[in-house]
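Journal club prep, notes for RB
We'll compare a predicted complex against what the paper describes. Inputs for the tryptophanyl-5'AMP case:
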Amino acid sequence: MSKKRILSGIQPSGTIHLGNYFGAIENWVKLLDEYECFFSIVDYHAITAPYDAALLPGRIREAALDNMAAGLDPERCTLFVQSHVPEHTELCWLLNCATPLGELFRMTQFKDKRQQHGWENISAGLLNYPILQAADILIYRADAVPVGEDQAQHLEFTREVARRFNTKFGQYFAEPKTIIGRGKRVMGLDGVGKMSKSMNNFIGLTEPAEAVWEKLRPAKTDEARQRRSDPGDPFKCNIYSYHELVTGDEQLAEIRQGCTTAGIGCIDCKKILAANLEKVVAPIRERRAELEKKPEYVRDSLMAAAEKCRAIARKTVDETKSLMGLGGQI
Ligand code: TYM
């Protein structure tokens, strides 16, 4: 029996951080054997918000390096750059014309950005962003999409796009399932919002240990712990939420106990976290340093992946066009 297929994507819009890793990439690596895997560096999505064109090629390269170093071995999955497969935008146009505008205006991400920046300062691309995401997924007829919790609405939207298309033009697209990773919503260092590239509240996946410590040292803990002797509640502490991602069960129990009895100070708790995190990220940093010495290998594998994608994507676009009454004999 052939394997089911997954697709997921990540924007090259800044440093890849621990939220991306524990919410998505770590899970992608776990799924490599079970599924036929497609992962995309979604550069067309990254240009929907203001950006510096001179920096974009470097960011795409960085994203490829980080993902490969984190375990997306090109021998075991298809890791490609979205804009190398122009069929994505072609399918996006077709789906654009089969999607009501009202659906797009209701998307949370769009509503937030519109409120923040105003109509004149956001692009039409931002409005159409979810349709491009639906096209990314549907073009490979993916069975499932592994993502962090923040993408749930986009995936529900994708299923609606598929449903609406099928009703109008005949059963064609399967509705992809959502797979949520264990770090489904990793909080930022401020403990207020989710960790994100744009909020500057992140720890980069491949940041040096010293830089990570500089960020962890002053990071928010349970506010009840003003002095070393104050007991706290681990479940109100952002640092504990990071421990849950990298610390083993036994030590985790000790930390809970230490926090509630004031047996452990916040700085010591952070030191243990830094050491455990380092065990996870050090091998990724090392693999990344190795990959940096092999730019042709990285480039060639992205190119080969795009070629494989184009063959699949072309077929979907042609079949979609045909169902929509396009591309036939006139
Ligand atoms: P992006 O680039 O914002 O994030 C990539 C992946 O990382 C997850 N993630 C998080 N998970 C937990 N906690 C966090 N703080 C956190 N921050 C990010 C995201 O959920 C995501 O899985 N729209 C998408 C990119 C995209 C896509 C697609 C995804 C484009 N086409 C097709 C899936 C399928 C995005 O902006 O992800």
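Talking point for the session: The longest strand covers residues 5-10.
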